[in-house]
TrEMBL record:
GO terms for biological process: cell wall organization. One of its GO terms (molecular function) is carboxypeptidase activity. GO terms for cellular component: plasma membrane. InterPro entries: Beta-lactam/transpept (IPR050515), Beta-lactam/transpept-like (IPR012338), PASTA_dom (IPR005543), PBP_dimer (IPR005311), PBP_dimer_sf (IPR036138), PCN-bd_Tpept (IPR001460). This is PASTA domain-containing protein. It is found in: Membrane. Residues 646-705 form the PASTA domain. Keywords: Carboxypeptidase, Hydrolase, Membrane, Protease, Transmembrane, Transmembrane helix. The chain crosses the membrane at residues 12-30. CDD domains: PASTA_Pbp2x-like_2 (cd06575). Its main location: membrane. It comes from Larkinella terrae. It holds the Pfam family PASTA.
């Protein structure tokens, strides 16, 4: 028994000793791995830094461009700075290594000059082929500056120096900020693949083809390619050229934002499309989040909902094609309220419209009137639904952008179809259509019945080589007869001239369209005062160039009668159309060319730069031709105008009639300290023109109008009061 106990005791002691020894070994490994350094570098980092393996070399992602070739999304290079310390000749290395250490210390600030110098020397002794000098990345401009340093110069081979390396990594960049962000899209930060928008829809084209090569894994997860001559080079991605015009896009986002902010709406969208080609020039989508409007959802493409009264246009086209109505026929809408199969149908106008024509039913957007006109269809719902299919409203438009919501246009075979369904459809309910799908139908009407598939991407290119060219798709068969087209175009113009959008008319051009106001369906019930408002139309009305859809969803206001499409969305249409009309001079009426020079005395020209005045006079065919140079002002002597130069530096110039900017230019070049009052053009100056320069050189300018709280004026006053 004693022998047995002795054996157990010895076994226990041996086991404990083995465990203690094992724990000591593990502790020493942990200490070496995580807490002990060699030559100033942690062992775990040295192990990571020396790991070389064959891995994927990422391709440079292609660009997304606007219609004029400017970048909407591109990949900008940033660089890790490294060195192959073996390359430089010994004498040159020893002579310049201290200078390099100092420059690196000043540039990155994470190590001292001596630490950098020691690190590079040890790497050279150990014959390391690559040393990462800093984990901070530099820009292309910084790279250009560093190429003047020793070891990094372009002529480094001649001086016996060399080894400096810049290893590029690419970061996605949007030159126009968040402009059209949801349309252009962005990348998934985890996978670096397209997440939404064009980035996702054209992922295969943009991504390019990755290569394979030797990669050195560095601390912090940085992977650095190593050239060994056996790499499979990555192929850069293709470039996508869109139809978006950055000027139109900026106008669209500005106009939409104004409309949303005015009514504190929850969300909205605006799309501008060329009628003939279907090319989308702008697509803006904004949503209210935490008090700010952001572009986080593509309402135009994916926001399927009841379109409301804008759907009365396809209803009218179907009625006209079936010859069920005439524009001049009378419709008795009574007091604006009727009951159909237990459902109350009412007009927005209290008291109704009384007896009006079919044309006025459309212009005034009378629900009761449409119900009366649809009576012949109620026994033939299949016929009405067949027209909706003929109008291509039951299918996606096929835009080359992921995420389009499939339209829902019911028919008698659909689940949930009832006796009330046709009546609801006729005025834009029990449907699910996106703004883009509705705009495409209106665009076809503007295009004389020819349905055009909307386009967002025009070309795919490899540098200047066109890889894929997308041509506009235009349906050869018109949606309806030309007679019907003429009638409904007249109806759409009537909406603006006499109907629900008459307050948005423009004195410069005529446009046509239809307002829409649909009650929002919330928790299965339509909510009074909660509206989806829209306006869809085109301009100029006589020769349509652009079609536009505006949606302002859930506007707020104390008076619900002012929250309809005519009051909310139509003004936004007018604002964007005004901006486009001013920008696109091709739509303007031609100006008559005057064959003879206009006799211009110079009375209308107050002051200016002589070259500018001569250029303007030539373009406008006037005989105002200054014979002096520089800044000039006119002096009338009898029937003739004498131009007097204001560039004489020894006299006070005549500043009257000049803008403040021009006056400051002349005065500050003469050393004046300038004060001014008001804004506009100069009408008086404290020191008379032609006087010798005063001492001290101070002058006060009086501008045309009284001062206003303008940030530019405040800034200029501060500048001049400080004497700068």
């Amino acid at each position: 028994m004693n022998v047995k106990k002795a054996i157990l005791r010895r076994a226990t002691i041996a086991s404990v000793a083995i465990c203690v020894f094992a724990i000591a070994i593990i502790g020493q490994l942990v200490k070496v791995q995580f807490f002990r350094s060699h030559d100033g570098t942690m062992w775990k980092d040295r192990i990571t830094q020396s790991h070389i393996r064959r891995d994927t070399l990422r391709a440079t992602r292609g660009n997304i461009c606007s219609s004029n070739g400017s970048f909407l999304a591109t990949s900008l290079p940033y660089y890790y700075v490294g060195i192959d310390p073996r390359v430089a000749k010994t004498d040159s290395f020893n002579k310049k290594i201290d200078s390099l250490g100092l420059l690196l210390a000043q540039k990155f600030g994470d190590r001292s000059r001596d630490e950098y110098t020691y690190m590079i020397r040890k790497a050279r002794e150990n014959e390391r082929q690559y040393l990462l000098l800093s984990r901070k990345r530099i820009t292309y401009q910084e790279r250009m500056e560093m190429q003047k340093w020793p070891f990094f110069r372009r002529d480094r081979s001649k001086s016996g120096l060399g080894g400096g390396k810049f290893d590029a990594v690419y970061q996605r960049y949007h030159p126009y900020g968040r402009m059209a962000l949801r349309t252009v899209g962005y990348l998934n930060p985890e996978t670096a693949k397209g997440f939404v928008g064009l980035e996702s829809s054209f992922q295969n084209e943009l991504a390019g083809k990755d290569g394979v090569g030797l990669v050195e894994s560095l601390s912090g997860g940085v992977r650095m390619p190593i050239e060994d001559g056996s790499d499979i080079k990555p192929e850069p991605g293709l470039d996508i050229y869109t139809t978006i015009d950055v000027n139109f896009q900026d106008m669209a986002e500005t106009a939409l934002l104004h409309g949303l902010e005015k009514y504190q709406a929850e969300q909205g969208c605006l799309v501008v499309m060329e009628v003939e080609t279907g090319e989308i020039r702008a697509m803006a989508n904004l949503t209210l989040r935490n008090g700010k409007y952001v572009e986080n959802f593509n309402h135009a493409l994916a926001g399927g909902t009841d379109p409301g009264s804008t759907f009365k246009l396809p209803t009218m086209v179907a009625l006209l094609e079936e010859k069920m109505i005439r524009p001049e026929q009378m419709v008795h809408t009574g007091g604006g309220v009727v009951t159909y199969h237990g459902r109350r149908i009412s007009d927005a106008k209290r008291g109704g419209h009384g007896s009006i024509t079919a044309q006025q039913v459309f212009e005034k957007s009378s629900n009761v009137g449409v119900h009366m006109l649809m009576s012949s269809f109620y026994n033939r719902p299949d016929t009405y639904c067949r027209y909706m299919r003929r109008f291509k409203l039951d299918k996606p438009i096929g835009l080359r952008l992921n995420g389009e919501t499939k339209p829902v246009v019911p028919n008698p075979q659909s689940p949930g179809w009832s006796k009330l369904s046709l009546n609801s459809m006729a005025i834009g309910y029990e449907l699910k259509l996106t703004p883009l799908q509705m705009l495409t139908f209106y665009n076809a009407i503007a295009n004389d019945g020819k349905w055009v598939q909307p386009m967002l991407v025009k070309q795919v290119r490899r540098a200047n080589e066109v890889v894929k060219d997308y041509e506009p798709f235009v349906s050869q068969e018109p949606l309806c007869s030309q007679k019907t087209i003429r009638i409904v175009k007249n109806m759409l113009e009537g909406v603006v001239e006499r109907g629900t959008a008459k307050k948005s008319q423009s004195p410069y051009y005529r446009f046509a369209g239809k307002t829409g106001t649909a009650q929002k369906l919330i928790n299965g019930r339509y909510q009074v005062g909660k509206y989806y408002t829209s306006f869809i139309g085109y301009f100029p009305a006589e020769k349509p160039k652009y079609s536009i859809c505006v949606v302002v969803d859930s506007p707020r206001g104390a008076n619900i009668d002012l929250l309809y499409g005519g009051s909310v969305s139509a003004p936004v249409f007018r604002e964007i159309a005004d901006r486009i009309y001013a920008y696109d001079v091709r739509m303007h009426r031609p100006v008559a060319i005057v064959s003879k020079p206009v006799q211009q005395s110079g009375k209308g020209v107050k002051a200016g730069f002589a070259d500018d005045i001569r250029t303007i006079s030539k373009e406008l065919n006037m005989d105002t031709q200054p014979n002096a140079e520089g800044w000039v002002t006119p002096e009338t002597q009898g029937a003739k105008t004498q131009w007097v130069s204001q560039t004489a530096r020894e006299k006070v110039p005549d500043l009257r009639g000049m803008t403040l900017r021009d006056a400051l230019h002349l005065l500050e070049n003469r050393g004046f300290r300038v004060r001014f009052e008001g804004y506009g053009k100069v009408i008086d100056q404290s020191v008379p023109p032609g006087d010798p320069l005063p001492s001290p050189r101070k002058i006060t300018l009086t501008l045309r109008q009284s001062a206003r709280p303008d940030t530019l004026v405040v800034a200029l006053n501060k500048k001049n009061q400080s004497g700068r």
